[in-house]
From TrEMBL:
InterPro entries xrefs: Glyco_hydro_beta-prop_sf (IPR023296), Mannoside_phosphorylase (IPR007184)
Family named by the database record: Belongs to the glycosyl hydrolase 130 family.
Record has Plastid as a keyword: no
Record keywords: Glycosidase, Glycosyltransferase, Hydrolase, Transferase
Name of the protein in question: Glycosidase
Family matches, as Pfam families: Glyco_hydro_130 (PF04041)
Annotated GO MF terms: glycosyltransferase activity; hydrolase activity, acting on glycosyl bonds
Keyword Glycosyltransferase belongs to the record: yes
Length: 372
């Protein structure tokens, strides 16, 4: 589904002031914003909206002296690591693979940090960019960056999950806030590779619930003729305190065997409770070249048992919108990608935040009738 009346880009690479970046003054080399994208979304106590933008900051010239360079946080500073060009595969613009090992080992062409941006209540205009509240690496477990925030309001607290990237582990980290803007680090909450942990906006049976998406290089097959396909799926977990998480025994949303659009899938927006049940937006990926085609889909989950999927929209809710990114054509490095990361209730519609083309922040007003 496309053609929503309000569908636009609200923040992008040109809106980031790198003189106020956490990396400023550390590297002795010019950087630029590879992407300002995948924004978490929440409503603040003053009625404004806030997005939490992933700023991927990259070296302007990563290749010199026969090496490709990566940015790393180390002991309170940012440094450069150099890899000989004949040891790496640079076919993916977002990363490079280290050749010669038994395992797939990669480094990133950018380091990401999270920038809070305050918007008007409709999410369409910038009120303030809060550089003083940026979330950046602070430990060796996130030395290659903090990525893809998601924010949920549960009771009187805002909870933010992020992906923290390092050679030690590819973990999920939790931050919390009492005002929706000033977040403090809580802890590592998932120790395995998990790109999309989304905390439900409300407790069920007195417990916190979350969607997770564990990753791996091996998946077991469903029986021949099954309606499901083996591969990454959206799982569930519960917690008494949002710190200690137990995987839920029943599966969550699984990829359908009948469509290539869910050859890979993962969570998008933190589930919110509607009169229909828990509304969750998620991404499905159709294989194409290196990155694939990312689209947004939706499901309604049982309000008392989120492992029960009541309804799913099998047609895409959102697809990449080339018309929106045409003014940024000189900055494009991937295409066919919309990655939805935030949702808030706005009475007769939802305000939905997405990353567009791993480049900019897209805001869409979607009528609530769409999900009925």
């Amino acid at each position: 589904m496309t053609g929503f009346a309000v569908d636009c880009l609200v923040f992008g690479p040109d809106d980031v002031d790198l003189s106020r970046s956490p990396l400023a003054g550390h590297l002795g080399a010019e950087t630029y914003v590879l992407g300002a994208f995948n924004p978490a979304l929440t409503r603040l106590p003053n009625g404004n909206l806030a997005i939490f933008v992933r700023v991927a900051e990259a070296l302007r010239q990563p290749v010199f002296d026969g090496h490709i360079h990566a940015i790393r946080w180390a002991d309170g500073r940012y440094v450069l690591d150099a890899w000989p060009l004949d040891q790496v595969d640079t076919s993916d613009p977002r990363k490079f693979l280290i050749r010669g090992g038994r395992w797939k080992v990669m480094a990133l062409t950018s380091l990401s940090w999270i920038l809070p941006v305050e918007l008007t209540p409709d999410g369409l205009d910038v009120v303030a960019v809060h550089y003083d509240k940026a979330i950046a690496p602070q430990g060796s477990f996130q030395c290659y960056g903090v990525e893809d925030a998601r924010v949920s309001k549960v009771g009187d607290r805002w909870l933010m999950t992020t992906c923290s990237v390092s050679p030690e582990r590819h973990s999920t980290t939790l931050y919390s806030s009492l005002n929706g803007l000033d977040f403090v680090f809580e802890d590592i909450v998932l120790d395995h590779q998990n790109k999309d942990m989304l905390i439900f906006e409300g407790k069920i049976g007195g417990k916190f619930w979350a969607q997770t998406r564990p990753l791996g290089d091996l998946y077991f097959a469903y029986p021949p003729g099954s309606e499901w396909r083996g591969g990454p799926s959206i799982n569930l977990a519960t917690s008494p305190d949002a710190i200690h998480w137990k995987p839920h025994r029943e599966p969550g949303i699984r990829p359908h065997a009948a469509t290539l659009h869910t050859a890979r899938m993962g969570g998008g927006t933190p589930p919110i409770l509607t009169d229909q049940g828990w509304l969750t937006l998620w991404h499905g990926v159709e294989p194409k070249e290196i990155v694939g085609i990312y689209r947004t889909y939706w499901s309604i989950l049982d309000p008392a048992d989120p492992a029960r999927v009541l309804r799913t929209g099998h047609a895409p809710l959102l697809e990449a919108a080339p018309d929106l990114t045409r003014p940024l054509e000189d900055k494009m490095y991937v295409r066919d990608v919309v990655f939805t990361t935030g949702i808030v209730d706005a009475d007769d519609h939802f305000v939905v935040a997405s990353g567009e083309a791993d480049l900019a922040c897209r805001m869409t007003h979607i009528p609530q009738d769409v999900f009925r």
